[in-house]
Amino acid sequence: MDERKRIAENVEQEIKAIMDVSDKKDKQRMKRSIYDIRAAVSIPDLNKQAYRPQVVSFGPFSTFGEMQEHKERASAHFLRRSGKPLSLFVESLAEVVNDLRDSYGIKSATKLNQAGIQFQKSKTRCLDDISFQSGVLKLPVIVVDETTESIFLNLIAYESLHVLAGTEVTSYFILMRSIIKDKQDVALLHSKGIIQNGLESDQEVAKLFNSLQF
Question: Count of domains in the chain?
Answer without folding.
Answer: 2
